[in-house]
Design brief:
four-stranded antiparallel β-sheet, 3 domains, elongated, Nucleotide-bd_a/b_plait_sf, Alpha-Beta Plaits, alpha+beta
Length: 311
């Protein structure tokens, strides 16, 4: 409250009393003035210890009566950026810009879903709905973007996309879809490219073999310098060795005369058994090496043995 300039009743603490129910994970916070209580509503969606906090009125809140006592909306002059919130987007996961994301495969993690949604920009709020008994995903979520102008772009790009055995339904939670404006098309195109990459990362990666292929890990320029190439090989040996016994590491290099060679930009890790390759594929798929987000897939052992790196 102090950081956003919400303590408007004078010096001192705006909070008079706090009751916390640890078992049910909620709290009641009493403020010293009506105006400060309304300002506190602007903190909805603030990240606290890694999780977004929902700030709501009590269930017995009477808007008509409250309006006679003082301001019922937060001050428009609050410095929400001081606590990582976006001015003008108060309301967290409420309001007309809230997006419903349905048809999510149940095995998708929160991290994977957030990465998919953040192809369009950072989120102000995100909530993956889970079963209260099991804690498992129910297959749908809600989100709000920090930049509200990308709301319709995200809906248009994500709606109808197939993910695993499911088809996504993505729309504004409170109304029908709106088509993105022409000036938003470049953002839409870039985001669709990111989504295509995410789909590859999230799909099951074939029948396990002893060989894991990392694609999009390296560029040709990374491989031209001899010393840099040796460093890359050593790094890959160390990284790959964390998951099992490595038999071989192959990183094809570009032809000095400029002719294209198969497999350039890929890294091949051969393990002594499938258990090691399974662990490596699961650990490396979707990870970032430098600026590159890697896709890890199993590679046919016969092709690898014959030096065929273009599959």
């Amino acid at each position: 409250m102090a950081a956003i300039g919400g303590n408007t009743a004078g010096p001192g603490d705006a909070v008079v009393n706090v009751y916390i129910n640890h078992e049910k994970k909620f709290a009641f916070v009493e403020m010293r003035s009506v105006e400060e209580a309304s300002n506190a509503m602007a903190l909805d969606g603030i990240i606290f210890e890694g999780a977004p906090v929902k700030v709501r009125r009590p269930s017995d809140y009477n808007p008509s009566l409250a309006a006679t006592l003082g301001p019922s909306q937060p001050s428009p002059n609050l410095n929400l950026a001081a606590v990582g919130l976006s001015p003008g987007s108060a309301g967290g996961l409420e309001g007309p810009d809230r997006i419903f994301v349905g048809g999510l495969p149940y095995y998708f993690t929160e991290v994977q879903i957030r990465e998919l949604l953040e192809s369009f920009g950072p989120l102000r709020g995100f909530d993956l709905v889970k079963d209260r008994e099991t804690g498992n995903s129910k297959g749908y979520a809600f989100c709000v973007y920090q930049d509200l102008s990308v709301t319709d772009i995200a809906c248009a790009a994500l709606n109808g996309i197939k993910m695993g055995d499911k088809t996504l339904t993505v729309r504004r939670a409170n109304q029908g879809a709106t088509q993105p404006r022409p000036e938003q098309e470049n953002i839409l195109q870039h985001a669709q490219q990111q989504i295509a990459l995410q789909r590859l990362i999230l799909q099951p990666q074939g029948v396990p073999t002893k060989v894991v292929c990392l694609t999009q890990a390296l560029s040709e320029d990374d491989l031209r310098d001899d010393e840099e190439y040796e460093d890359i090989v050593e790094d890959m040996k160390q990284e790959g060795g964390k998951h099992g016994v490595l038999v071989n590491v192959v990183i094809p290099r570009p032809n000095p005369n400029g002719e294209p060679l198969p497999g350039v930009g890929k890294v091949f890790l051969e393990y002594s058994d499938v258990e090691g390759s399974r662990k490596a594929q699961a650990a490396m798929n979707g990870r970032k090496f430098g600026e590159n987000q890697v896709i890890a897939v199993f590679y046919p052992e016969n092709k690898f043995a014959q030096g065929e790196y273009d599959a």
